[in-house]
Amino acid sequence: MSDESRPASTNVRGAEYPRVHPDGRVTFRLYAPEAQKVVLQPGGADNGLGPGPYEMTRDAEGNWTVTIPPAVPGFHYYWFIVDGAMVNDPGSETFFGYGRQTSGIEVPEGAEAAAYYQPQDVPHGEVRARWYWAKTTGAWRRAHVYTPPDYDANPTKRYPVLYLQHGAGEDERGWATQGRMNWIMDNLIAWGEAAPMIVVMDCGYTIPISTVPGGRPDMATYVRMQEAFANLLLQDVIPMVDATYRTLSNREHRAIAGLSMGAGQALYTGLTHLETFAYIGSFSGGMREGFDPQTSYNGVFRDPAAFNERVRLFWLGTGTAEPRAYEAAHTIAKAMDEIGVRYVLYESPGTAHEWLTWRRCLRNFAPRLFK
Amino acid sequence: MSDESRPASTNVRGAEYPRVHPDGRVTFRLYAPEAQKVVLQPGGADNGLGPGPYEMTRDAEGNWTVTIPPAVPGFHYYWFIVDGAMVNDPGSETFFGYGRQTSGIEVPEGAEAAAYYQPQDVPHGEVRARWYWAKTTGAWRRAHVYTPPDYDANPTKRYPVLYLQHGAGEDERGWATQGRMNWIMDNLIAWGEAAPMIVVMDCGYTIPISTVPGGRPDMATYVRMQEAFANLLLQDVIPMVDATYRTLSNREHRAIAGLSMGAGQALYTGLTHLETFAYIGSFSGGMREGFDPQTSYNGVFRDPAAFNERVRLFWLGTGTAEPRAYEAAHTIAKAMDEIGVRYVLYESPGTAHEWLTWRRCLRNFAPRLFK
Fold first, then answer.
1. How far is A170 from chain B (nearest CA, A)?
2. Residue B334 pLDDT > 50, yes or no?
3. Which CATH code for domain A7-108?
4. Which residues of A254-269 are buried (b: 16+ CB within 10 A; e: fewer)?
5. CATH T-level assignment (fold) for domain B6-108
6. Which of A167, A265, A296, B52 has the smallest number of Cβ neighbours within 10 A?
7. Within 13 A of B240's CA, how many CA atoms are on the CB side?
8. Handedness of CA B28, B29, B30, B32 (dihedral sign)
């Protein structure tokens, strides 16, 4: 390539495509010599690559290419459609989203803005794959557990715990890959902004998906999933974590947050279990429909003064370029204003329903915990 | 489905295809309504799914299917070719192989034979993602580090270390996903067969792939990669591991092994650094061409008696159904017989150049370490 485009940081080793141009345009390429039609499909309605689909053009060798207009910085899912078949890009890493392994591309923002989620020359924690048997689901499950940089060096020190959930279609791998949570936490801890803490990431899917007609859960199913997830977390995950890691195992040292579907799970689990959590965060999420301060979430908002005293942080975050989540966050804020419940509302400028919003949410949320 | 086939264990949640039949046949399916031609392509010449490619047949809804003859048990890479484009199966997890994310399927063997690589109700270790800066490559790298079940509970205990490498086209993720090394080690330790040990898995690719013409390294490149990998391991990885984990940091408590390309790296690094390693294992690998006991590997075989005294284990493994590796292992064994060097030769019955061979290699190799 004679221009100044560069292979994306999400490419597999040695892959020349996709390439990001200095102005944010992206060139995609796929080899499909016998295909009749190839298009690039960004994942999701608010995707920073634009809505698409983008038609691709075949060259003499059978490579199909397209260069799209400047993309919004951040992490964006995408795939190709080759004669009607959904196709991952062999040049990109895959990421678990949409309930399957999906191509993703990182469109960089400026080095300064990105510093907090890049690896820096600071002490690094670990993300540990921890298998455990879950009684509530009757299956082996894997949690990913972030331990802070000084964890092994201080074998008697105990740490607070943040339970942090992914979104719909994703799983326990999302936060440490798409979300880069380990680097965010490493940096915030090194910079003195966040307390050293353990972060536990589990999979929010706790009931068989195959029972959901059509594959996409309806609202009633999401509610059942919230309840099943709360049972999993309270009866399996938290006891396992407290038995396995050096935790401070009380509500004052336990937080819960999640993004999108995971925000709904964090709100449900946290708000109905204030005996277990003192910090609750909703990243691009909303409350259950039909909010009623007298009855919703087991009536936890019935006594706002008691709520304000008991809850150390009620945190809401949204990107400004994701209309549904933006409205949902402001709807919660308005309801809280009306009854006098304290909260923090964070807005990520210009970002959509994707992981750059949630990296920024974590960057704003984590420093407010356990202080 | 009215038959007794079951979704493969490697499927993503809820995916009904691919399905494995009780007799080992496998049914694959892909939705590609506008495609002209779809085939199933097993990965690699000795793949347990058979050589393929297998033509798939379209139904009225646009689903293409094929049922293949009984497959060899084990883990097999595969993909579809849709009108000339390489396509992953949205129903399967992906695994890093062939230098890209690739679909894979687990074809089960009997529960008894598989017990050692399944999760059992025994204490579980962790696989930890550890980022570090490598001076020799000038980049951030990720190692995966297995710590045994009792590691955190014994904060003063120190452990021996096995350095364990993946094969060509793969990376540091291979052993803990395709290889199931964590469950193998958990079980061997619980059953009293292997000593509790730390296992370090890094990426064997240490020089830019894009410098290799045509994408597939030639022999000279593999040799350069062996040397670069040895430098990485000795100058970056081992010092980092010894500084970060509670290791027994001497040759008597350090082993190195790898599979295929990684076997070549383990042989080169181990045999030229007996001051660092006392245990060396080659899984489905071969020595460098033109073996000469006087000069090869810096002349380490020049004094067989000294070699036998210094090397605690020289271990060779191969499947019986992978002709090239089988011949390579026996070629080494014959050369060692001729000069009187002790070794162990293990043969995995009926398995090919795939991960079931390497799980069995680890199962045989690990119990011989650090005793």
1. 11
2. yes
3. 2.60.40.10
4. bbbbbbbbbbbbbbbb
5. Immunoglobulin-like (2.60.40)
6. B52
7. 25
8. positive
Distance CA B236, CA B258 (A): 18
A84, B32, B40, B83 from B61: Cα distances, Å: 12, 9, 19, 18
* HSE value, Cβ hemisphere, 13 Å, CA-based, for B239: 11
A275-287: pLDDT as tens digits? 999 999 999 999 9
Provide the residue count of chain B: 371
Q: How is domain A114-368 classified at the CATH fold level?
A: Rossmann fold (3.40.50)
In this predicted structure, what is the pLDDT of residue A211? 47
Query: Is there a shared CATH topology between the B6-108 domain and the B114-368 domain?
Result: no
Q: Which amino acid is at B161?
A: V
pLDDT of residue A221: 81
Report helix, strand or coil for A226. Answer: helix
Our CA-based measurement puts residue B131 at a distance from the nearest CA of chain A, in whole angstroms, of 7
Are the Cβ atoms of B82 and A152 closer than 8 angstroms?
no
Say how far residue B252 (Cα) sits from the centre of its chain. Answer: 24
Mean pLDDT of chain B: 94
Q: Would you say residue A167 has pLDDT above 50?
A: yes
Q: Are B128 and A126 within 8 A, CB to CB?
A: yes
Asked whether B48 and B109 are in contact (CB, 8 A), the reply is no
Phi, psi of B40 (to 5 degrees): -95, 125
**8 Å CB contact between A191 and A117:** no
Query: Is the separation of the CB atoms in B39 and B54 below 8 Å?
Result: yes
pLDDT over threshold 70, residue A115? yes
| Overall average pLDDT of the B177-194 stretch | 98
d(CA B147, CA A178): 25
Q: How many angstroms separate the CA of residue A155 from the nearest CA in chain B?
A: 6
Predicted confidence (pLDDT) per residue in A42-89, tens digit = 998 778 898 899 999 999 999 999 999 999 899 999 999 999 999 999
Q: Are A126 and A147 in contact (CB under 8 A)?
A: yes
Instruction: Compute CA distances A47 → A11, A50, A350, A355, B356, whole Å.
Output: 19, 6, 12, 10, 40
Contact between B40 and B47 (Cβ < 8 Å): no
pLDDT over 80 at B367, yes or no: yes
For residue B35, give the nearest of A83, A99, A246 by CB distance: A83
Question: For residues B334, B339, B344 and B346, what is the CA-based torsion angle, rounded to 10 degrees?
Answer: -10
Q: Classify the C-alpha dihedral B81-B83-B86-B88 as positive or negative.
A: negative
Query: Which among A175, A20, A3 is positioned nearest to A106, based on CA atoms?
Result: A20
pLDDT (tens digit per residue) in A178-216: 999 999 999 999 999 999 999 999 999 998 754 445 556
By the CB < 8 Å criterion, does A216 face chain B? no
Question: For residue B32, is pLDDT > 90?
Answer: yes
Q: What is the pLDDT of residue B152?
A: 95
**B260/A68 Cα distance (integer angstroms):** 41
Q: What is the pLDDT of residue B288?
A: 86
Average of per-residue pLDDT across A250-276: 97
Give residue A107's pLDDT. 94
Q: ω into residue B367 within 30 of 0, thus cis? A: no
pLDDT of A216 reads: 64
Six-digit token string for A346: 């964070």
Q: Which B residues 29-48 touch A at CB under 8 Å?
A: 30-38
Going from N- to C-terminal start, the domains of chain A cover 7-108, 114-368
Length of chain A: 371
Q: Give yes or no for a contact between A168 and A108, defined as CB atoms under 8 angstroms apart.
A: no
User: B282 and B332 in contact (C-beta within 8 Å)?
Assistant: yes
Integer Cα distance of A104 and A153 in angstroms: 36
Q: Tell me the pLDDT band of B207, cut-offs 50, 70 and 90.
A: confident
pLDDT digits (tens, 9 = 90+) for A170-188: 999 999 999 999 999 999 9
